[in-house]
Amino acid sequence: MNTFQNLNNNNNRQVATWLFVVCAFVFSMIMVGGVTRLTESGLSMVNWQPISGIVPPLTEVEWNAEFEAYKQYPEYQKVNKGMVLDEFKSIYFWEYAHRLLGRLIGVVFAVPFFILLLKSKIISTLKPHLWAMMVLGGCQGLLGWWMVKSGLVDRPDVSHYRLTAHLGLAFIIYIYMFWIALKLVVPPSISKLIRPKGLCFLYVVLLFIQVLLGGLVAGLNAGLVSDTWPLMMGQVIPDGLFYNDPWYMNLINNPLTLHFQHRTFAYAVGLVGIVLWWNYRSDKDKEIVVAVNIVLVTIFLQIILGVLTIINMVPIPLAAAHQAGAVVTLSAGLYLLSRLRT
Question: Whole-model pTM?
Answer without folding.
Answer: 0.94
